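One-letter codes give the sequence; the fold follows as C-alpha cells. An example follows:
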Amino acid sequence: MSPLSPLGLWYAVLAFVSWGLFPLYWKPFAAVTPWETLSHRVVWSLVVLAGFVAVMRQGREVVAVIRTPGRAAMLLLTATLLSTNWGFFIYAVTIGQVVQASLGYFLTPLVNILLAFVFLKERLTRWQTVAVGLAACGVLFYGWHLGTFPWIAVGIACTFGLYGLLRKVVAVAPLVGLLLETAWMAPVALVVLGWVRSSGAQVFGQTTGMTALFLGAGLITALPLLWFNSAAKLLPLTTMGFLQYIAPTLQLAVGVLVFREPFTLREAVTFALIWVAIAIYVFTVIRGRQVVVAPNPD
C-alpha cells in the first residue's frame, strides 16, 4: 500500500473542517431572508470561481462545455439541485436546525447506495440493504417523534446524492462544472436580489459587517471545493470517504455545543441508528475497497 500524501491529508482536512464549521458563518444571516442569502452566495461564488478559472487557464474547457448542448443542459439540472441543497442548508442554520442538517449529511452515503441501486442498477449487498434499512428506520423514528417529516435532513441528503450521481455522469472538470452551474443560477439570483431590493427588505449594504459576510460567501464556497479537488487527486477514494464524516460530525457538535440545540433521546436514538448504518457502510467499503464520495455542496 502506497503511503498517504501529507499534502493531500492537509487539503482534505481543510475542506471537511471548513464544511463542518459552515454553520458558524451562516448563523449571522438568521435575520436575512434565505432568498437574499442564497442569491448573494450564488453571485459572489460566480465571481470567485471565474477568477479561479482564469488563473488556472481553464477558459477553453468552459467554452467547450458551453458548445456541447447535452453537457450544458445536464449542468442546468445539477445547478438546480445544488442551489436547492444550498438553500436547505442555509435555511436549516438560520432557523436553528443544524443538528437536522448534520443528519442529512450523515445520511448522504447511504442515499448514494440507494440511488446507485435505483438508477445505475447496481446490486445491493446484504449488508448494504441492512444499512439502508437502518437509516430509513432512523429517519422514520426522528420524524415520528418530531411530529413532522424531517424534510430538511431528507432534502439535504437527496439533493446532495442526486447532485453527486449526475456529476459522475456528465464529463466536466469539477471547477469548470461549478462555474457553469453558478452561471446558470446567476440570472435567477439577480432577479431575486432585484425583487428583494424593490421590496425594501434588502440587508446587503446596510452594515459593514453583514456586507463583508455577503461578499465573503463566494470565497468560503469556492475554497473548500478547491481543497477537496486537490485532496481527491492525492488521496485514495477510500481515505476520502472516511474523512468526509468530519464535516457532519463538526456540524452536529456546533449545533449542540455552540448553538445549544436540543439533543434528546429522539436525536440519540436516530443518530445511533444512522451511525450503526454508517459502520456497516464502512465495513462494506473495507471489504470492497471502494467508496462513493462527492464534494460537499454547502
In short: The chain has a mean pLDDT of 86. Residues 91 and 183 are 22 Å apart (CA to CA).
